[in-house]
Sequence to fold (280 residues):
Amino acid sequence: MSTLSNDEQQGPGRVIDRAIAAYYPELPGKAAVITGAARGMGAAYTEGLVARGVDVVGGDLDLDAMKATADAVNAGTRTVPADGVRGRVHPVALDVGDADGHEELAQAALAEFGRLDFWVNNAGVFPYGLAEEITPEQIDSTLRVNVQGVLHGAQTAARHMEPGGAIVNMSSVSAVRVRRGRGAYCASKAAVAHLTESLAVELGDKGLRVNAIAPGYIDTEMTRWVREDPAALEHALDSVPLHRLGAPEEVFGALLFLLSDSARYVTGHSLAVDGGSRHV
Ligand SMILES: NC(=O)c1ccc[n+]([C@@H]2O[C@H](COP(=O)([O-])OP(=O)(O)OC[C@H]3O[C@@H](n4cnc5c(N)ncnc54)[C@H](O)[C@@H]3O)[C@@H](O)[C@H]2O)c1
Fold:
């Protein structure tokens, strides 16, 4: 889903956009809920899962954008598996801070697809505010979306999913590394990482797995400011051992693994997809 041309993808610091080829034969026919699915990683996850035969209920604050993404994915032709099965996207309006909205997503999955196997708590916000200046309102709104949103999603998933189901939360390299001006965000993603462990321990009783993905700099709308500011890009890439931004499709590879049977003994883990930047 990258909008970069081939030429743009060649230079240092640019993303690459080679499709992830992995195919897991157990996935076709399953159904997922993905929050924040209108754009960025959520849209890449949606497109990648549908191409592998998984039906998706996509929830987003921006319903028009969610519908446009659903239309584009549903009209798409990319199909990865040899058996040529594609899934379908059903778009729904959602504010992840609203617990009832999550229940509507679960009901939509059951009504449209008759099952619910995967839940991806992807929606997030990335506010700016220096540590001395963060307002209570900023902290509240960040935790409401990034942390409460994950908790509501996981609680809803736990109510409806059968043993074998998998939940994936979006944490960040910012859970373990300080980003100037992003104190509220870093705290929220550290909370997601720890919450993932708590959920994994308790939902293991129900046969559910809960993991997180911790991306570094991924080329989406959220990080457009980095790509558009040469100084910011240079500074960002100084902290990436692989010397480039990641593409949403590269994070999708991690999601695919965590949802698949190949990860059936993996729970409570945060999988870094960051070009190594958590070490710098
Ligand atoms: N892009 C990165 O470099 C990066 C790095 C680490 C972690 N992450 C995390 O990955 C996730 C996806 O990030 P992205 O880069 O694709 O972001 P993005 O800003 O491109 O997309 C986020 C999507 O979430 C939706 N959204 C925002 N608030 C919502 C709410 N209250 N309810 C429902 N939907 C809402 C937006 O409308 C949008 O479609 C986020 O949790 C983000 O914090 C991103």
